[in-house]
Amino acid sequence: MTTNSSGGRPGRAAADREVVLSRAIGAPRELVFEAFTQVRHLSRWWGPDGFTTTTRSFEFRVGGAWDFVMHGPDGTEYQEWITWTEIVPPERIALVHGASRDDPDAFESVLTFESAGEETRIVMRTVFPTKELRDEAVEKYHAVEGGEQTLRNLAAYVTELTGNETTRDETTRDETPRDETTPKGAEG
């Protein structure tokens, strides 16, 4: 990923290839981070509204992978693969996400988990290989709406775990510029 000295943010050249989403969640960042790093949690909330996830394999470590299928509400199955490239508990996760291990169109994401009082602000910054792939993800696959729904599902799940009703529904996004089943042994 192209970065500059601004703490891992993509450089100017990446701005037209990125999507940035954030959300405040009323729970400690250790719990929010855990919900992202253990398959027993991921299978309960991952994906946009109406989707379910079947995990084939899961190994949360740098170089490890999550091989899974997302099942759309219309019955479409999406083969997915995530490889973890950086893990700094409970602050940061970097990953590469594509349809398979060698997907030439895979995108890179960095998730940061920031303590904000009794809340956690999660920021998900995704950079696509090209502007065209970013535009296709946004326009054809509704990446922004799907990402917002996914973060909302995470917030609802963590709220369920904590019984905390203070999770704020204030997903923000920056598109600038804009021209369930877990296999045995994969509980994580």
Describe what this molecule looks like in 3D.
- 24% of the residues lie in helices and 34% in strands.
- The chain has helices spanning 29-37, 39-45, 131-139, 143-162; strands at 18-25, 52-58, 65-71, 77-88, 92-98, 107-116, 119-127, 172-174.
- Strands 2-3-4-5-6-7-1-8 form an eight-stranded antiparallel β-sheet, covered by helices on one side.
- A hairpin with a 3-residue loop joins β4 (77-88) and β5 (92-98).
- α1 crosses α2 (39-45).
Keywords:
disordered C terminus; alpha+beta; single chain; globular; 188 residues
Write down how many β-strands occur, each being a DSSP E stretch of 2 or more residues: 8
Which value, in Å, is the CA radius of gyration?
Answer: 16 Å
**Relative strand content:** 25-35%
Order of helices and strands: EHHEEEEEEHHE
Instruction: Characterize the overall form.
Output: globular
Mean pLDDT: 85
Largest sheet: 8 strands, antiparallel
- Oligomer kind: single chain
Measured as a percent range, the helix fraction is 10-25%
Q: pLDDT below 50 for ≥5 consecutive residues: which ranges?
A: 1-10, 166-188
Terminal CA distance: 27 Å
